[in-house]
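Appendix B, record 7
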Amino acid sequence: MKAIRTLLLAVLLGVWLSGCGTASEPTATPFPESMKGYELYSWQEGGQWKFSLLVGTNREKTLEEIKSADVLLSGVDELTSALKNVPSGQYITWSAPETLAFPPEEIRSQVEHTCKEQGLLLNVAS
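Structure tokens (predicted):
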């Protein structure tokens, strides 16, 4: 009986201690390689720059697709993080059709620098 109690206590202690480890941050999932590269869009909303980074296709994206919550990146820091997950050698085409716009030169330079560091081929379509 004493051996069973000791074993049970050891198991409970092990289970309890296993929950005390440090939490690990989720790792960012890298983007897949794309035959058509990626499409980058930007616009200003509520005083903040918003971006979306979509897999390239042969068709124009709708404004609804571009501004979808699934692909929305709020601010240049989120964009930079996303670009770091795009495989090196991929083309990034940055355009601002319809009601979209390019950010100021400072932000554009930061995006260009990140693309260069990551080995991404940025094409700004004006």
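Remarks on this record: Confidence is low (pLDDT under 50) at residues 6-17, 20-27. The longest strand covers residues 38-45.
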